[in-house]
Amino acid sequence: MAIEIDASLHRELVPLSWLIGSWEGVGVVGYPGTPERQFGQRVDFTVPGDVPYLLYNAHAWTLDEDGQIDDTLSVETGIWQLVRDRQDFDSGPGYMVPTAETPYTTAEAVEGLRNDKGDFELDVSIVHPHGIMELYAGRVNGPRIDLSTDVVARTRTAKEYSASTRMYGLVGGELMWAWDMAARGNELTSHASARLKKIT
């Protein structure tokens, strides 16, 4: 599958450009102590302006025995971006405006962000309902992404949840992903996976 890259896309997003768009499909979710269920999902990766990060939104719902939508399972929202030191040409913290021009205007400049293994390192933050936020460290190399939690933050009322890993890959034009998590006293254990087709 050929990946078309919008010429106006921020150059730092080129390694992640294969994610951009809306994806829908089905998967299977389960965990020790809970029943295995089929679920549907929509994932949106969007670019909110001329920025060096992707906005991630995911909505999952359970499916009944006939494959019809049963109920909302969960939602997630987050930010995906390449790892590099933040400088005067970046906005933030808060609403602070940039005070310099970005040097990452060419593919050659962005290529300089690769690590010794040839990967681009990733920072990914994902917020869940019910008081859980994950900060992932990961890598992207071609159409494959591997993530592992660096930090899991929980409110005092959240369920016990300590770590997770996620893998995303583009296979035959479809987005496939798998999620392992450590929760409720369990070590990292398979939790969910899905196969999504691009719809926009």
Automatic annotation (TrEMBL):
<comment type="function">
    <text>Heme-binding protein able to scavenge peroxynitrite and to protect free L-tyrosine against peroxynitrite-mediated nitration, by acting as a peroxynitrite isomerase that converts peroxynitrite to nitrate. Therefore, this protein likely plays a role in peroxynitrite sensing and in the detoxification of reactive nitrogen and oxygen species (RNS and ROS, respectively). Is able to bind nitric oxide (NO) in vitro, but may act as a sensor of peroxynitrite levels in vivo.</text>
</comment>
<dbReference type="InterPro" id="IPR014878">
    <property type="entry name" value="THAP4-like_heme-bd"/>
</dbReference>
<dbReference type="InterPro" id="IPR022939">
    <property type="entry name" value="Nb(III)_bact/plant"/>
</dbReference>
<dbReference type="InterPro" id="IPR012674">
    <property type="entry name" value="Calycin"/>
</dbReference>
<keyword id="KW-0349">Heme</keyword>
<comment type="pathway">
    <text>Nitrogen metabolism.</text>
</comment>
<keyword id="KW-0479">Metal-binding</keyword>
<feature type="domain" description="THAP4-like heme-binding">
    <location>
        <begin position="12"/>
        <end position="198"/>
    </location>
</feature>
<keyword id="KW-0413">Isomerase</keyword>
<keyword id="KW-0408">Iron</keyword>
<dbReference type="InterPro" id="IPR045165">
    <property type="entry name" value="Nitrobindin"/>
</dbReference>
<feature type="binding site" description="axial binding residue">
    <location>
        <position position="191"/>
    </location>
    <ligand>
        <name>heme b</name>
    </ligand>
</feature>
<protein>
    <recommendedName>
        <fullName>Peroxynitrite isomerase</fullName>
        <ecNumber>5.99.-.-</ecNumber>
    </recommendedName>
</protein>
<comment type="similarity">
    <text>Belongs to the nitrobindin family.</text>
</comment>
<dbReference type="Pfam" id="PF08768">
    <property type="entry name" value="THAP4_heme-bd"/>
</dbReference>
<feature type="binding site">
    <location>
        <position position="159"/>
    </location>
    <ligand>
        <name>heme b</name>
    </ligand>
</feature>
<feature type="short sequence motif" description="GXWXGXG">
    <location>
        <begin position="21"/>
        <end position="27"/>
    </location>
</feature>
